[in-house]
Structure formats: C-alpha cells, structure tokens
Specification:
heterodimer, A: alpha/beta, Nucleotidyltransferase, domain 5, B: alpha/beta
C-alpha cells in the first residue's frame, strides 16, 4: 500500500517507514519512560533515514496495545496528528497481533506440535500480563486470534490454558513498528484493515467512585 | 543545584559591591558615589549574584528608552567564586533585561588580554567589532569592543499559530494570527469526572486522546484555515497532570514533523496571563496575575511576559477550585462545585459563619505572605456542617442552612484570594491585576476583586470567561509572541513537565 509510517509505543518508542511492506527505516528507543521526549525525533529520524518526505506518507498504522496507559497514548496521539498533518489514512493494529504474525511467519505452528497454540504476552505491570492466543496465520499472513487480548496474572493464564489441555508455544519477540507495518500490509491484502485507533487499555482507570460523596466530610472530622 | 542566585541589585548592596569592585579592579575601581548613582539610575539595570546572603558578583546594563542600543556597564565576580558559571548567569540577566527594554544591540568592552571573558561573550553571540588602543590605564591594555545583535520582532505578515492545551480536563485547540483570535475550541471531559467528585487524571488523559482530532478539525473550520496556512504550533508542556500533558505534547510534535512547522513549548500558567493579548493587543506590564482553577492557585508578578515572570506564591495544599468541589460534596451539591456553590450562595448570608482565612495571621504572613491554604477551610466547613446536623437531629438547633454555609465559604475564599492579590500589587507598586483560571467564573470573586481594586487604585483585568478557563487560544497567543519576538523554536526533544516553574516561559529542547 505504498508508503506507510508505522508507530508503536506499547513498550518503548518504535517508528518505521515501510514501502509496500518492506521496511526502509526503523527507529527503536527501548526506554519505556521517555515516549514523550522521543516520539518527535523518532518520526523525523525514520523519515530522514528512509529518505522520505513526510508529505509522501500515504497511510499511518499505529499499535493500539494492549499496553500500560501513559506511553501507549503517546504513539496513538502522534499517529492521529501525523495522519491529519499529511492527509494520510489512519489505521489501528492490535500490537500483540503484530508480534504473533512475526513469530508465526518465522516458526509456523505446523512445524511444532499441531495441538499447540501460540501465546503472546507482554508485561502489564502490577504482576499481570497482557495476552492473546493464536491458532495460526490465514492465507494472507494475518494471525488468527482465538482468545484475548486480555489482562491476567501469569499463573492464572497458565492454569486456565492447562485446564483446557493447551500447551502454548510462547514467543519472546518484542513489539516493533516494523512488525506493525508488516501486519498492516497483510491486513490490507486480506481486506481486513481497521480504522479503530482507540487504545486497548483493558483496565478501568484507577478511580474509585466514592460510595457516599459526603464521605470526605465525615473522614476529616472523625 | 547551585547554591547561589541572581537577583536585582538594591541600594543596600552598595557596600558589598564596592568591596568586590576594589578587589577585582584595584587600579581603576569606580568611586562609591559613582556606583551608587549607577545602581539607582532609571536607565540602568543592576543584578547581584548572592550566596548564603553575601554578594559574590554583580553586573549592570545601561539602556536609555530613546535609544535601541544598550551597554554592559560592568561585570565582576569574586576571584573565589569564579568557574561556577556566575559570569554567564549575570550576563543572561542583563540580556533578559535588554530584551525586555527592547534593545536591538548590546555593546561591551573587554580587556584584550582577557581570553576567558572574551570566549564567554563569543559563546553568547557577541562579535568583536573594533578595538581601542591603550584603553585600560595605567597598564595600557587595549579594549575590544564587542556587539550582540538581538533578534528583532518580525515585520510584515503576522504569524498564524495553532495552540494545543491538554494540562487538565480540557482539550483545547486555538488559532491566532498575531494578536487576533481566529478560533478557540474546547472539549471538556468534565462530565466523566462528575461521579468521582473531582478530576481523575487517567480519565482526563483518555479523553484527550479521543478529543484530539475532532477538536483540531473544529478549530480549523472555525478559523477557516487549512493546516498548510499555519506558521507554527504551540503546546502547553506543563504544569499540569503529567499523563494529560503528554497527549498534547506528542500531538504537537507529530503535527510539527508532518507539516514541517516549528513547535514552541510554552508554560500553561503564563498562557493564562498572555491571553489578555487577545483582548487588548498586549499584556500591559508590570502586572500581578491571580490564577485560580481546580489545579492551580498562584500569584504571579509579570514584569515581562516572555522574559520575567516570578511566582510570588501559590497554594500549599488544595487549589481553590478543588476546595469548591470538596465543599460542594459536603453540602450534597453536584460537581463541579464552583457554579453549584455560587447558585446556593446567592440567597445566603456571607457573614453568617466566620470561616477561617488560611495563611492570613501575622505569623503566617511572614513566611507565606502570598501563599494560600484551603485545606483548613474545607475541614472547618465539614466540621461545621456535621455539628449543625447533629444538633438539628437532637432538636438543639435549626436545619442546616446550605445557602448561609455556601455564602460564608465562598466569602472566605474570595476574601483571602483578593486580599493577597491586592497586597501583592501594593507591595510591588504594581497598578494592575489580571485574573485567570476557571474559578474567575465565581461571581463573588469578580465582585470583590472589582471593589477592592477600585479602592486601591488598581486596574483590574478579567478576560472573557472562555479565555479564562483552560483553552488553546491562550497557548497560541503566547506562542505567537515568541514567534514575533524572534525566539527559536523548542525543537523536538522537550518533555512534559508536570511541575514546570512559571519562570520557564518557553522550554527549549
């Protein structure tokens, strides 16, 4: 689909420029606490390295997570505004799907035990993991997600899968914007692109609705 | 962290300055009378470097209003305090003053045999333009004349600047052309916070992300402009809720890379001051600014919008708007509390209950002359309400009079805000007070400020409410001032700073 800018900030800050599914440049900043500082230069540097003017980007593909809140939003906000700024189309990608595609392309499930599924998981902090289960790739190379994405404790995920006799293959592949761009291309070929770029938080905000809005008054006087 | 500060010189510093003068210039020290004249003259700006209350360096600038040229009169640092960056800091203070006084060129003389000083001046942009033979006597050393050309306000077309604000629960995008407002679109997540009785940072940040595109589209439509017609982008990079600010900063940077337009990172609070430009064409300085919202309660002294903003004081606990929200909860009123309390107070007696005025007692005024505290007040209201209810339940008193409590609480807040703001004006001999922030919507605050300012001979500025609450137009207006003053853009590496000090009007990467 021509020139694509891919962005993912579900772990570090990753930006890639792809042409027809082939990466021309990729910038990865591993630090998970500097998304805001890194995102502008990462986009600029990726474009510069690819030798592409911002205006020639035709589509922007952004990882929607799931991921911890704060960093994830940086990539999505940047993708929205970049697409708006150059008049490109904007598409959302489930970040775990991109990892699954990368792993399943390198090591197809048929090469392993056919009863296996692929478990893709990533750190969700607070002793929990984001995860999704994949049964393989379709003929366009789009991963088939059989369960998830969801967020649970690693022990609970293991136990639930064991109960159902699933012995998952687990990938150690890290999320990269290049993988986002490659999946985008596969989805385009399959005609299953999504314009939904809402963040996959999978958790509600940490706010507790006060049971009694007047509790505050009682507490301070007690 | 350095253990010294730079501040304007006072007449009381004269003896300390003269001691350094003699130590640094044993052959050709100025006389005490000369120095005193320099310190006190209207056309000079002197600064001192102070460590542990002793003066360790000083510098002076001369600039008469009729000329657009200024001269560095002198700069001296005690030998024992050299190598700490004092010289640069003092020069920075002089150049800041020079810009404020609209100088175009700054000149200085430096000994030809002083390469350390010369390289400092070179590094600050000075060039060597001439020499004077045998200038320094009796040693007969040549003087170098050095000149710095300050960037000038651009002439010609006024810049179109798009401003992005996301420091709290308002996604604001505004567009200005120079000092003219073209668009001001605000999307608020206020309703989503109502059931929590206050702003929930994560909910605010999520809402910003969803509001970005629609708000931008609406602002461009309102201004009848395309993105190609924007000259620069400004964004508030703090102070505020970290996660919320980050959305705006990421958005601004990506828009900058996409469009090739420079981005200016500006201070949200100074934006509240700068918004007056949109109604008056400029911010008249000096002015005191009282900024009151759900997140801030700050008193600023603004001598120059871009170069000289000082924080006089701020709340040491709750922001005033937060106090309104919490007291509204105690009274069983809805969120946001400000308008609800305003309504309830309309029929109440403001003198029914004498609630405490935080940090106004003599001992507090020494340490916290311009600071605010609303935590004790809200507790006092809660306790009062509780006691009144118990009494009423036991048949010992009348039913709780919500109108009286609301009116008395509102009076206490407005009283302490206005009293301290007026004091700040009088103390600093500043004849102007500017109000900003969402709490400015409060009718009693406006009324009391109007009365007290009139009594004290202080001119009061209250911008339109749509410009007082958080908005992108104020960020755009401040950004446009930076562009017109020829300031360089902020680059792409700056971050979100939830505690950005007001002294940092623009963040550079």
């Amino acid at each position: 689909m021509g020139l694509v800018l891919a962005i993912d900030t579900s772990s570090g800050t990753s930006v890639a420029v792809l042409k027809d599914g082939i990466a021309l440049a990729e910038i990865d900043v591993a630090d998970t606490r500097s998304h805001t500082e890194s995102i502008g230069n990462a986009i600029q540097d990726a474009l510069d390295q690819a030798g592409i003017a911002a205006k020639s980007i035709e589509a922007v593909a952004v990882g929607r997570g799931p991921a911890p809140f704060t960093g994830l939003r940086v990539g999505i906000a940047a993708a929205i505004m970049f697409a708006e700024g150059v008049g490109a189309q904007l598409f959302g990608i489930v970040s775990l799907d991109a990892i699954a595609r990368q792993e399943l392309t390198a090591n197809p499930l048929s090469n392993r035990n056919p009863a296996q599924s692929l478990l893709v998981s990533s750190d969700a902090r607070r002793s929990e993991h984001y995860w999704a289960l994949y049964s393989g790739l379709d003929r366009h190379g789009v991963p088939i997600c059989s369960e998830g994405p969801a967020v649970n404790r690693p022990g609970d995920i293991e136990a639930a899968l064991a109960e159902r006799g699933i012995v998952p293959a687990i990938t150690a592949v890290k999320i990269s914007a290049r993988a986002i761009g490659e999946l985008f291309e596969a989805q385009a070929a399959a005609g299953v692109l999504s314009q939904d770029v809402t963040a996959l938080y999978l958790r509600n905000p940490d706010a507790v609705e006060p049971k009694n809005l007047r509790d505050f008054g009682k507490r301070v006087s007690g | 962290m350095s253990d010294w500060i730079i501040r304007p010189a006072l007449e009381a510093d004269l003896n300390a300055i003269m001691a350094i003068e003699h130590e640094c210039f044993p052959d050709d020290a100025w006389s005490q009378d000369n120095m005193q004249f320099e310190l006190m003259a209207h056309h000079t700006e002197y600064f001192v470097a102070v460590r542990k209350e002793s003066v360790i360096g000083y510098a002076g600038l001369s600039k008469v209003p009729a000329s657009d040229q200024g001269d560095v009169q002198t700069i001296a640092v005690l030998p024992t305090a050299r190598g700490l960056g004092l010289g640069r800091a003092l020069m920075d203070a002089l150049l800041t003053a020079a810009r404020r006084l609209h100088a175009r060129e700054i000149f200085l003389e430096v000994r030809a045999d002083n390469p350390v000083a010369q390289s400092l001046y070179f590094s600050m942009g000075f060039e060597h333009i001439d020499s004077r033979k045998n200038y320094y006597q009796p040693a007969g050393i040549d003087a170098w004349i050095m000149r710095l050309t300050l960037p000038q306000r651009r002439v010609g077309r006024e810049p179109v600047v798009l401003g992005i604000e996301s420091t709290c629960d308002e996604t604001g995008i505004g567009i200005v052309r120079g000092t003219t407002l073209l668009a001001n679109v605000i999307s608020s997540s206020m309703d989503a916070h109502a059931r929590f009785g206050g702003v929930v940072p994560e909910i605010a940040a999520r809402a910003h992300l969803e509001a970005l595109k629609p708000t931008l589209d609406k602002a461009l439509a309102e201004a009848n402009l395309s993105l190609a017609e924007i000259d620069a982008i400004a964004v508030a990079n703090g102070p505020g809720l970290g996660g919320a600010v980050m959305v705006g900063v990421a958005a601004a940077k990506a828009l900058s890379v996409a469009t090739g337009k420079p981005v200016y990172a500006v201070n949200h609070l100074v934006g509240h001051v700068g918004v007056d430009i949109l109604e008056r064409g400029q911010v008249e300085t000096p002015t005191v600014a009282l900024l009151v919202s759900g997140g801030h309660t700050s008193l600023l002294l603004v001598r120059d919008l871009l170069d000289d903003v000082e924080l006089l004081g701020e709340t040491i606990d709750d922001a005033a708007g937060e106090a309104f929200d919490k007291v509204a909860r105690v009274l069983g009123l809805k969120y946001p509390g400000g308008p609800e309390i305003d309504r309830a107070a309309a029929t109440g007696n403001p003198n029914a209950i004498r609630f405490p005025r935080g940090l106004t007692q003599a001992k507090d005024m020494e340490k916290h002359r311009y600071d605010f505290s609303f935590s004790g007040l809200k507790t006092a209201v809660a306790r009062w309400v509780e006691v009144a209810e118990i009494k009423a339940a036991n048949g010992e008193g009348a039913e709780l009079n919500i109108a009286d409590v609301a009116a008395s609480f509102r009076e206490a807040v407005a009283d302490v805000l206005v009293t301290k703001a007026v004091k700040a004006c009088l103390d600093h001999n500043v004849p102007r007070l500017l109000l900003g922030g969402g709490v400015v919507a409060n009718t009693r605050l406006r009324q009391l400020a109007t009365e007290r300012c009139a009594e004290a001979g202080i001119e009061l500025r209250i911008p339109a409410l749509s410009l007082c609450t958080d908005n992108g137009a104020m960020i755009a207006a401040l950004g446009a001032q930076l562009v017109m003053a020829g300031r360089r853009p902020s680059g792409l590496s700056f971050g979100a700073d939830s505690t950005l000090p007001v002294t940092t009007v623009q963040t550079l990467s």
